[in-house]
Design goal:
Helices cover about 55% and strands about 15% of the residues. With about 325 residues, the chain is of the alpha+beta class. About 20% of the residues are buried. InterPro entries: PPIase_dom_sf, PPIase_PpiC, PrsA_foldase, Trigger_fact/SurA_dom_sf.
């Protein structure tokens, strides 16, 4: 199965196969259990919408984010749109035939990802499925997949001109930020240290600084004296860009010329002495180095656009009615 088709089915099925379970929120218990939308005569009920909104809300709550009524309304709108899209696709793909053995193979593949049959069945039950209803959902998904594969053939070609245009129009994507290669020696000071410990740390870093000024090797000194995790590596921090180190350390490090050693720098971690080995100015990544990644991105973008256009064409051709919203083609309301 192609990457595009995989993604299409995941997008279309997202509302149906949500990972979190939960009861219908109190907010939606207050909503009239009527019809949320009608697609070519097929009703999407408020009960179904409330069920899927509840699952989505449970996902947020599992991450410690409780949705407010206004946010729930946004989720509801998204759920309705997804259910409408799915219903249009189900109707369009109704004539496709999927052999029972292919459906069973798909289910077996999913089931193999669980430790046991019991764990698989518990997962189904947590989402409100039994084996039969889950099999029906898999059948629907496979029909949709087959429809998309037939009606939206995968795009695989991108021209050199398209790649070059994208490269020129998006320079920020292909810019390597300024970076430096540096080492440091750290004498730590903990947040709760008393003045005596702070003074001892200050005396130690001052002694180290004098030794370096007198010609001591930086890496050897770091291995012997540094209290930071990079000490065994001679204090080597590797290469880094702005924003990766604490501000005081960064300011001094990026101001140092190559080969220079700083004075004593104080941060919340303690006292540092920094040596910059090499500086790398901001630069553009050569086109040839990113040609393949641009090609992949543009192919994916083309396929997503084709899929979106196909879905829009199906919905535009369908008779879709939503309570309180007039259908521009019929001027009817549900």
């Amino acid at each position: 199965m192609s990457k595009m088709t995989n993604k299409a089915v995941i997008i279309i099925s997202a509302i149906v196969v949500l990972a979190a379970a939960g009861g219908i929120s109190a907010y939606y218990l207050l909503r009239d259990r009527g019809v949320a939308a009608v697609v070519n005569g097929v009703k999407i009920t408020e009960e179904k919408v409330a069920e899927e909104v509840s699952k989505s809300a449970a996902q947020y709550e599992a991450q410690g984010m409780a949705l407010q009524p206004a946010q729930l309304e946004q989720v509801r709108s998204s759920v309705i749109e997804n259910l409408i899209t799915r219903e249009v696709l189900l109707q369009e793909s109704a004539s496709f035939v999927i052999p029972d053995e292919e459906i069973n193979e798909k289910i077996a593949s999913l089931q193999s990802q669980f430790e046991s049959d019991e764990a698989f069945n518990e997962a189904l039950a947590s989402q409100g499925y039994d084996p039969d209803s889950f099999k029906e959902v898999i059948l629907q998904d496979m029909k949709i997949q087959k429809l998309i594969e037939e009606k939206v053939p995968e795009e695989t070609t991108v021209t050199d001109e398209e790649i070059l245009t994208f490269y020129k129009e998006n320079p920020a994507y292909f810019t390597e930020p300024e970076r430096i290669h540096a080492s440091h020696i750290l004498v730590t000071v903990e947040a709760g240290d008393d003045d005596e410990k702070k003074n001892q740390a200050k005396a130690k870093i001052e002694r180290i600084s004098e030794e370096l000024k007198n010609g001591a090797d930086f890496a050897d000194t770091a291995r012997r004296e540094s209290e930071g995790p990079s000490g065994p590596q001679g204090g080597d921090l590797g290469e880094f860009t702005r924003g990766q180190m604490v501000s005081g350390f960064e300011t001094v490090a990026f101001a140092l010329p190559e080969g220079e050693i700083s004075g004593i720098v104080e941060t919340q971690f303690g006292y540092h002495i920094i040596k910059v080995h090499e500086r790398f100015p901001e630069s553009s990544v050569p086109l040839e180095d990113v040609r393949e990644s641009i090609n992949s991105y543009l192919v994916q973008d083309k396929n997503q656009t084709k899929l979106k256009d196909f879905l829009e064409s199906l919905k535009n051709a369908a008779k879709i009615r939503i309570p309180g919203i007039k259908d521009e083609k019929t001027t009817e309301e549900v």
